[in-house]
Q: What sequence folds into this?
């Protein structure tokens, strides 16, 4: 009986993960069917102990060679431009999972407020999974109250409008493959939501992205998609979006290098836009 609570939690996590995966892939396939394997079904195995869930999709034999930058950028831009939020808002109809944990993707009409919603969710997961890390909550609060308005606020100022764009949400080296049959690039293992399109490429700056961190991928994408205004704040937006990615992943992986990278970017942004009395690390 002592194992049952842990087992129940594990079963619930499996259900959440695969339901989120299926719904993510369905949304991507509906928008860009040549970019993702076709999702077929998900559900619970009728005979399994412990309870086990499955996700079925089209099988594509892929290589793990570096994806062609032009083809990847072209397909990604087509996905982003073709997508339309069914509600006109940011988010998704269920909470999707980045890594092993759910992210707060409830619909929100404001991109700034939706980003804060994501960050608060990631911070709560860190406290639950890793306890209190020195100064982390203070830095995250400072980011939300003082930095976000200055870095993300201008995106929706002076009459500017941010289109809610469907993003893969976890687009790193390991979630991209090239078909051995036809050379087409496919993406998988998605955790989608409707976001500012620049959120998609923020993960590429992370240190664990050994391939997509090459400037050719970023430049190929931006040359086709363009940079949101104000253009001069692109680098800081890319960094603040990366804060969310690494903050969430640090909860999934007990800190690891994700925590260190998150701290680095938090300190940089806070020291630039809203310095504390002394640097926290």
A:
């Amino acid at each position: 009986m002592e194992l049952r609570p842990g087992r129940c939690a594990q079963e619930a996590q499996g259900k959440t993960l695969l339901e989120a995966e299926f719904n993510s892939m369905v949304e991507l396939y509906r928008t860009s069917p040549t970019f993702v394997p076709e999702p077929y079904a998900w559900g619970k195995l009728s005979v399994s102990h412990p309870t086990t869930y499955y996700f079925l999709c089209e099988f594509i034999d892929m290589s793990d060679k570096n994806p062609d930058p032009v083809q990847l950028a072209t397909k990604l831009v087509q996905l982003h431009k073709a997508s339309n939020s069914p509600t006109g808002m940011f988010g998704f109809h269920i909470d999707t999972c980045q890594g092993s944990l759910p992210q707060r993707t409830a619909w929100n009409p404001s991109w700034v407020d939706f980003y804060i919603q994501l960050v608060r969710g990631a911070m709560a997961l860190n406290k639950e999974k890793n306890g209190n890390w020195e100064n982390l909550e203070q830095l995250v609060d400072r980011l939300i109250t003082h930095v976000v308005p200055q870095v993300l606020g201008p995106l929706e100022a002076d009459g500017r409008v941010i289109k809610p764009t469907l993003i893969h949400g976890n687009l790193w080296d390991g979630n991209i493959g090239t078909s051995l049959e036809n050379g087409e690039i496919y993406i998988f293992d998605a955790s989608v939501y409707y976001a500012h399109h620049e959120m998609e490429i923020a993960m590429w700056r992370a240190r664990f992205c050994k391939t997509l961190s090459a400037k050719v991928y970023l430049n190929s994408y931006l040359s086709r998609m363009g940079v949101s205004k104000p253009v001069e704040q692109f680098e800081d937006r890319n960094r603040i979006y990366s804060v969310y990615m690494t903050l969430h992943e640090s909860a999934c992986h007990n800190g690891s290098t994700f925590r260190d990278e998150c701290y680095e970017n938090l300190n940089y942004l806070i020291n630039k836009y809203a310095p504390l009395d002394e640097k926290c690390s």
Q: What stands out?
A: The longest strand covers residues 39-44. Confidence is low (pLDDT under 50) at residues 1-9. The beta strands are 39-44, 53-57, 62-63, 97-98, 101-102, 165-167, 176-179, 185-187, 193-195. The two ends are 42 Å apart (CA to CA).
